[in-house]
Amino acid sequence: MLRDWRLPESFLRLRQALEKRHGPPAGMRHFARVLQLLAEYPLGQVEQAAQACLRRGELSAERVAAEARRLAGADAPPPPVTPLCQYQVPRPDLGRFNQLLSHGGPDDGR
Hints:
Elements: H1 9-22, H2 24-36, H3 43-56, H4 61-72, H5 94-102
């Protein structure tokens, strides 16, 4: 599926430049984040942002994202941040833990 994905030539140049600047693993991570911009911005806009960053030598996913936002318009809000975790875990009650320590069981060596 992704193997047959036809991206503009500037994306290939950007990927190669990112890998050269940051090394292959980190460069690919930057490139993957650039591709994630396509979920929020049209292909043409991300391509323009990539081309602008290539011309200026600004080789990072953050710079491409900033340029894509700029191209979208200064008044446009940034893409929404998806929370990494939708669950809230309550803080532990350490007083209860201390209670467990003070009440030794038959197998705890007391």
